[in-house]
Automatic annotation (TrEMBL):
TM helices/strands, residue ranges: none
Protein name: NAD(P)H-dependent oxidoreductase
Domain of life of the organism encoding this protein: Bacteria
Domain NADPH-dependent FMN reductase-like span(s) in chain numbering: 5-149
GO MF annotations in UniProt: oxidoreductase activity
Pfam families registered for this protein in UniProt: FMN_red
């Protein structure tokens, strides 16, 4: 059974509506149609402390979220664009994931080898390519594998106030890229589960 975890990095806690949450949910729906068991967590609903340790103590919520991440085959980072960058919570997630960057299994491989990374980006200004590039590099450094076309995104026109969640219907290009992200991520996850990576020196 393939498992997917969406880590939603909107700055808005639940139950506030979120375009990042909506796009993440759409990716998970596509994954679900492919037989994947899916879960979503909204970082703003949890007390994830700043830092680069597995557990920052004093009620830090990251260890519990990390357990979910380690149990997943596919990890989707969903973020809005703020000032041309991923949200601060998305950066915090990457920083917390960095605590495991030097940890390896008994064959010298990073603990995240065999996991597939994917990205979902929303915003009202151009910048989805830049944001996805930042996240792709971070995920790659952390040991995740990326399938082709590993991002789905929507950006509105410059200086407009319309949000993705306020659209009357989902644009076909977004629907198609969301479906592609899901199909390719599942395909790669199955290949990695079957074959895996060789031992690292």
């Amino acid at each position: 059974m393939i498992r997917a975890l969406a880590i939603v990095c909107t700055l808005n806690p639940s139950p506030t509506r979120s375009s990042s949450q909506l796009l993440a949910d759409q990716v998970l729906a596509e994954l679900g149609d492919l037989g994947v068991t899916c879960e979503s967590v909204r970082v703003a609903d949890h007390d994830v402390r700043p830092g680069v340790a597995v557990d920052m103590g004093n009620g830090d919520a990251w260890p519990g979220l990390r357990d979910k991440l380690m149990a997943a085959d596919i990890v989707l980072l969903a973020t809005p664009i703020w000032l041309g960058h991923p949200s601060s919570l998305c950066q915090r997630v990457l920083e917390r994931m960095n605590a495991d960057i030097a940890e390896t299994d008994d064959q010298g491989r990073q603990l995240t080898y065999g996991k597939v990374g994917a990205v979902a980006v929303v915003g009202n200004e151009d910048g989805a390519h830049k944001v996805s590039a930042d996240l792709f590099q971070g995920l790659n450094d952390l040991g995740f594998s990326l399938a082709p076309n590993a991002v789905t995104y929507w950006v509105g026109e410059s200086q407009h106030t319309t949000d993705f969640q306020d659209l009357d219907e989902r644009p076909k290009a977004v629907a198609d890229s969301t479906r592609t992200v899901a199909i390719n991520a599942v395909h790669l996850a199955r290949l990695l589960r079957q074959y895996g990576y060789p031992p690292s020196p």
